Structures are given as C-alpha cells and as structure tokens.
Amino acid sequence: MTTSTQLIRARRFLPLFVTQLLGAFNDNLFKNAMVFFVVYSVYNSETAEMWFSAVASGVFVTPFFLLSALAGQLADMRDKARIIRIVKACEIGIMAVGGAGLLLAWQGVAIGSLSIPLMLLALFAMGVHSTFFGPIKYAILPQHLHENEVLAGTGLVEAGTYMAVLAGTIVAGWIGVHWAALGVIIVALIGFVTARFVPSAPAQGKVEPIDFNVFRSSYKLISHTVHDRRVFLAIVAISIFWAICTILFVQFTPLAKNVLSASKEVASLFLVIFSVGVAIGSVSINALLKGTVSARYSPISVIAMGAFLIAFEAICSDWRASSTMMDVPTFIAHPLAPMLLLTLLGIAVSGGMFVVPLYAFLTTFVEKSQTARTIAANNIVNSGAMVVGALFAGLLSLIGLAVVKQLLVVAGCCLLPAWFGYVLLRAERAAAPA
Asked: How does it sit in the membrane (predicted)?
C-alpha cells in the first residue's frame, strides 16, 4: 500500500483533507458562478470583462496580504483544529450573503448597485476565511504525519485542492446562479460537520503573545521567515508562479468568449483542465522525487510551462471562430480544439510539478512551532504578487494588447520563477551534507 493510500484512509489526515477540499470547492463554485454571470450576462466589452475578472481576483486575495500574519500567529499559538471549526462556522454566514447576491443577480434586481457589491463582499469574506484556513492546512501536516509522509501529504492536499477547484468550476459553468446560491450554503454546512472530526493539534513550543497590529506583525513575520535561504527562495519562486497563474485565470473567461466564441461551459472546461493538470503534476512530482523534498525538477518544469504557453497562443491566433457562441460539443468538434486542450493541460501539469516541492520546503526546513507562520509569510508575499498579477492583466488590456497576445507576455514571465528555482536548487545542494 502506498503512502498516499495509507494517508487518505487515516483519521489523522482524512477529515482535514475533506474539509479543505469542500472549502476550495465552495470558493470556486461561488467565484466562478459570479464571474461567468457577469462576463456573459452583464458586460459586452473585452476590457470591461478583463477588469471585472481582475477585480474579483484582487478582492479575493487582498485579505491574504492584510491578515496572513495574524492568521499564522493564531495557528501556531492556538489549537489548529479549533480554529478550523470556528472558520468553517463563519463560512455558513458568508455563503448566506453570497447566495443572496447570486439570487438577486438571477432575478435582475439592482445588479450594479446591490447584487454585485453583495457578491464581492462575500468573495472578500471568503478570502478572509481562506486566509485563516490556509496556514493550517499545511502547517498541521508535520504535526499529524510522520516525516516521510509530509511530501505525500502536501501533494495530496495540493491535488485535492485542485480537484475541488475542478469540481467547483464544472458546477459553476453548468448550473444557473440560483442553484449555485443554494449549493454554496449546503457545502458550507457539510464542511462545518467534517471540521469537527479533525484531530486536536495544540500549539507546539513556547506560546507567545499575539500581535494584533497586522502591518507590524506582517513585517516581522516576513523578516523572521527569510533567514533560511532555501525558504526565502521558495517563497519568491512560488509568489512569481502564482502571479503568472492569476494573469491566466483573469484571461481565460474573456479569451473563451471573445477569441474562441465559446460559451461559459467552455470557459469552465478551460479552468477544469487547468485544475486537472495541476493535480496530475502535484502527484507525479512526488513519484519522481520518491518522497525527497527537492527543487531538482523545478526549473525545467516552469520552462516547459512557458513553452506550452507559446504553443497555446499560436493555436489561439490560428483559431477561426464561429459567428455564434459554441457549446462544448461544437467546440470539441473544432479541428484545433484537441491541440488547444492538450497544450493547456501541459501548462498546468508542468506548473503543478514546479510548485508542489516548493511548498514542502516551507514546512520541512523550519521548526514545527514556526510552520504556520512560515506558510502565512508565504501567503502574504503570494497575495501581493497575485494582486500585482491581476492589476498587470488589467493594464495589458487598457493599453490595447489583445488578450491572446498577452499569453506571450505570460510565457516570457516564466523565465523569472525558472531562475529562482535554479538558484534554490543550488542553495539546496550547498546545504546538503557532504
């Protein structure tokens, strides 16, 4: 029996795995139901659609930038399982507000003045929810798992997250917003129940006072975290990677609508394939590394991601769109569709292979009592990079660069995480025992 199979059946891992999966599903069901509705039913301008998609991404990640330091302190200084249960209880109320916004949008009631603000408010609150849950889902692993299980557990959590993204995106693309409104509330209730089965994970080491000044604590958190060169380089590489992914996520729906003349179900299919690919990459890199935490394959993986992006752009540029919005069967029948979807899958698989080992660096090379705060520091830098990525995507549209040509800019950006991955690999080898 493999390590991953053993973990998925263990009570010390399964409730956490299911709880975080449900949370990721709800995030994506709600966010994508909102974005699909606004892009396909409210706006009729590529620039406006890109900006709304960018705003939605920015609203969701802003709490990570503001509150991650506080979240990391709480996770290290309090019982992680108890925090999970509190966070999941709050999710029920958040989704009630978000569901109300979706229902109002479905009815066409005050879309600009009430329903969209309600949905963005709920999206921001879900960002807060994920900010406090995020450090825990990784930091709790070294506390509940054996040392040789941490990489496998990290891979499963990452793969589970993206499978949940997959499911949430599929459902958001294929159901009406009124059903999405009901669905997000039901999933929040189920997540609250599963959270009650997560085993206790009390604070380890000395319990220190919590600094509620988020700006001071954020600065201290980052400065204290980067003393290990490997951890610092991993955080920088992960952050650049997520900035690139944010640009792609902002682009996918407007690209599907305006370049490929494809329906929201096809836009959902794009996000689904991306999620499947990252999940495949997350699991396959564990097999390649055989449980060893290493950046050995990171530089070549992200370079491959850039190459697939160039191929994806070339296919999009040669695409001959129909005069009407294509549904999924019509889209699949297009002669260029198989190659387009394969290159998209290649982008995602190589991305997953790049990022998963780097997350393992954050929980392996620090003291167990510091793991949640290390993840929180990573989240602060990641979220700042993602906000920059969302704004960058919007600015590219403002200066008139067509969405399909923006893919080439993203491909060029892959050289940055490749360089940091290479430097990290050198630092890893330098730190290895002779």
From this structure: Multi-pass membrane protein
Distance CA 75, CA 307 (A): 39
Residue 326 pairs in a beta bridge with 262
Question: 260-311 pLDDT, tens per residue?
Answer: 888 888 888 888 888 788 878 888 887 788 767 778 888 999 999 999 999 9
Residue type (1 letter), 203: A
Q: Is 293 left (phi over 0), alpha (psi -120 to 50) or beta?
A: beta
How far apart, in Å, are the Cα atoms of 218 and each of 69, 70, 166, 203?
5, 8, 32, 20
pTM of the predicted model as reported, rounded to 2 decimal places: 0.74
Alpha-carbon span 59 to 64, nearest angstrom: 10
139: confidence class by pLDDT, cuts 50, 70, 90:
confident
Residue 380 scores a pLDDT above 80: yes
C-beta neighbour count of 262 within 10 angstroms: 27
Q: Which residue has the tokens 């309090």?
A: 78
Domains of the chain and any CATH numbers: 13-197+224-431 (1.20.1250.20)
> How many Å apart are CA 379 and CA 133, to the nearest integer?
11
Give the Cβ contact number of residue 1 at 10 Å.
6
Residues 6+ apart with CB under 8 A from 431: 229, 230
Amino acid of residue 340: L
- Tokens read off for 206: 């000395």
Instruction: Name the H helices within 290-402.
Output: 298-318, 328-333, 337-364, 371-398
